[in-house]
Amino acid sequence: MAWIVLIASGVLEAVWASALGASKGFKRTRPTVLFVVALVLSMAGLAYAMGSLPVGTAYAVWVGIGAVLTVLIAAVRGQDKLTPLRTALLAGLIGCVIGLKAVS
């Protein structure tokens, strides 16, 4: 159960990071509200997962999922470019997250 919550929290990290950028310095209401809600839920889920998973592993997986998804969201929105090298590096990051799960 902790892994499922951790994965969902990683997804929410990408949501709050993207909403933070869209809030334009907290000047836009909807993205700001989304940022706050996603941030609180993401942190709560991370805290829950750390109750039964190693702290370093849980944090690395959370950050990895959030980072990869944030880049992908930005690429879909046309705010970032996915070059072959960046894609390979993101794939490597995903591989490291899977590896951490496998050895935990």
Automatic annotation (TrEMBL):
It is found in: Cell membrane. Its main location: membrane. Keywords: Cell membrane, Membrane, Transmembrane, Transmembrane helix, Transport. The chain crosses the membrane at residues 33-51, 58-78. InterPro entries: EmrE-like, Small_drug/metabolite_transptr, Small_multidrug_res. The keyword Nucleotide-binding does not apply. It is a multi-pass membrane protein. Pfam families: Multi_Drug_Res. Belongs to the drug/metabolite transporter (DMT) superfamily. Small multidrug resistance (SMR) (TC 2.A.7.1) family. This is Multidrug efflux SMR transporter. It comes from Streptomyces endophyticus.
